[in-house]
Amino acid sequence: MQSFEYNANPSRVIFGSGSLKKLPDEVARLGLKAPLLLSTPQQIEQAESLKAILNGKVAGLFTEATMHTPSHITDNALEYAKEHKADSVISIGGGSTIGLGKAISIRTGLPHICIPTTYAGSEMTPILGETADGQKKTRSDPKILPGTVIYDVDLTMTLPPALSATSGVNALAHAVEALYARNTNPIMCFLAQKGIKALAEALPEIVQDPSSQIARSQALYGAWLCGTCLGSVGMALHHKLCHTLGGSFNMPHAETHTIVLPHALSYNAPTIPEAMRRLALALPESKGDAIKGLNVLLTKLKVKRGLKDFGMKEADIDKAADLAVSNPYWNPREIEKGPIRELIRRCWAGEKARADL
To answer: What is the pLDDT of residues 60-96, one digit of tens each?
Structure first.
């Protein structure tokens, strides 16, 4: 066995159907009196339900969270939190709301309780991605990691099948990159395989039967494991491409992860044989070929495969390639502009992944 280092992140997880009812006890346990509730404009109703669960004992509701955590929204939220004397933040939603909670928490030191309603996985990471002046930049700091995460499967039961699929693949991508991260280790590889397998089995069932609580629970469990992977090891090419496309071209987050993942994997495949073997074992119907397994999964999930479907122009491919090769993340294969441009072109066109980059 190769030598490795492993650092466990100190997070508290409360998992299970109906676990949202434990929120008042968690707030009391932390000695909090005036939490600021965060949501997107689309999830105001869920934020209002938190207020009711807490018997109205909140500093207020800030409901302007948006994709890619733009700095001007964070500034508005910080002013609101200060004005209403908030002593903590509670975020309910997906990566957009959780990102805003992290941005507030790292700037103020306020405790952060997360209540995820998607499979994005941000709640388990000490990573914050923020957008300013058309560029998305990420940073990592142990203080960014939320203190408590409440996973209540009941909150995911109404997540539309299409969003469940892309959000789930977003989570899956975290575990895929954990298999070949520069600082990976046996614990992360074990969790990654378990998380990938759980999601790859549950997501097609959710697309067929969105009301299946068994599949929803399995998907949320898988998302937790995959998020834990992202929070514990480094990122590589896949995440760099997604951050570039999201921050500079305003591509939707989960959908971009879904489109990019098989192509980024194809690019790295020649240099990561052991990770490809592990991934093939975790993906149903791969028959020893992880790229095939991923293509089969995405076909079952009926997801869109092209960035052009979300408004990216063909003329943007060159700019995206330039941005992707500038300040690259560590990657197991050297970053080469020609193949990277072709990778992005395939993502734009919606082609199936091929291991010939």
So the answer is: 999 999 988 999 999 999 999 999 999 999 999 998 9
User: In this structure, what token pair is assigned to residue 279?
Assistant: 């991934």
Q: Are 25 and 81 in contact (CB under 8 A)?
A: no
Q: What local confidence, expressed as pLDDT, does residue 3 receive? A: 86
308-331 CB burial, b ≥16 within 10 A, e <16:
bebebeeebbeebbebbbeeebeb
What is residue 265's predicted lDDT score, i.e. its pLDDT?
97
Exposure string (b/e) for 117-132, b if CB count within 10 Å is 16 or more? Answer: bbbbbbbbbbbbbbbe
Between CA 309 and CA 303 the distance in angstroms is: 11
How many other CB atoms sit within 10 Å of the CB of residue 108?
Answer: 16
Cα separation of 192 and 157, whole Å? Answer: 24
Position 99 confidence tier, pLDDT thresholds 50, 70, 90: very high
Its sign, for the CA torsion 43, 47, 50, 51, is negative
Confidence of residue 266 (pLDDT cuts 50, 70, 90): very high
The number of CA neighbours under 13 Å toward the Cβ of 87 is: 9
Which residues on adjacent β-strands are paired with residue 136?
131
Across the range 149-166, mean pLDDT stands at 96
Distance CA 254, CA 164 (A): 10
Check: pTM over 0.90? Answer yes or no.
yes
Helix/strand/coil for 111: coil
**Contact (CB, 8 A) for 36 and 112:** no
Q: From CA 327, how far away is CA 240, in angstroms rounded?
A: 9
Give the CA angle between residues 213, 216, 222 to the nearest 5°.
Answer: 140
22, burial (CB in 10 Å: exposed 0-12, middle 13-18, buried 19+)? middle
Terminal alpha carbon distance of the chain:
31
Segment (H or E) for 42: none
The size of the chain, in residues, is 357
